[in-house]
Request: fold
Amino acid sequence: QSALTQPASVSGSPGQSITISCTGTSSDVGGYNYVSWYQQHPGKAPRLMIYDVSNRPSGVSNRFSGSKSGNTASLTISGLQAEDEADYYCGSYTSSSTLYVFGSGTKVTVL
Amino acid sequence: EVQLVQSGAEVKKPGESLKISCKGSENSFTGYWIAWVRQMPGKGLEWMGIIYPGDSDTRYSPSFRGQVTISADMSITTTYLQWSSLKASDTAIYYCARHRSGRIKQQYLFYYMDVWGKGTTVTVSS
Reply:
């Protein structure tokens, strides 16, 4: 099972909005509303930011939002801040034998 | 507090065996599945497999089946990841994470990971 496809990097200036895409297939992203997003700062463990496509866990800023259309999910960060600079991974349940698949990861740079 | 505490960094030689652990607090363990995730140096996250400590039901991603063994001891709320013969390519950080799940018609669906351990760094070098 190949990883879900994400852009390698996305950048933006403080205060701007950026969107990260996550493209899969009808066996994962497109077939189920079980897409999640994780933030990982260097040397740290991943942190759940969005689950079930668009839900935010308690404690996650409302500047983070998620959506999905067809086989592509998206994470939008609005009002970009320096602390948002990190790697972001999408993840999804998959009906294949892999059971769960991560995206390839996107490095977000705050200019 | 809900947390998963992982064992410390390991340095091993190729061919050696290894077992690393992930101990959960009661409320991070009971009734949940625990997954293991690999991150090779400078690379992305890879989902390795998952265990339900309550009955040791274990599932593996095809890429990792036969390469590692996942086990659990519910009496001490601990899960394990082990290798019988390490390779240099096993050098990575390994995370355990609590995996939220659901069940539809006898099939488990694994939704997302909401509690993560800090990771165990495994270095395999001659």
Summary: The longest strand of chain A covers residues 86-93. DSSP finds no helices and nine strands in chain A. The two ends of chain A are 34 Å apart (CA to CA).
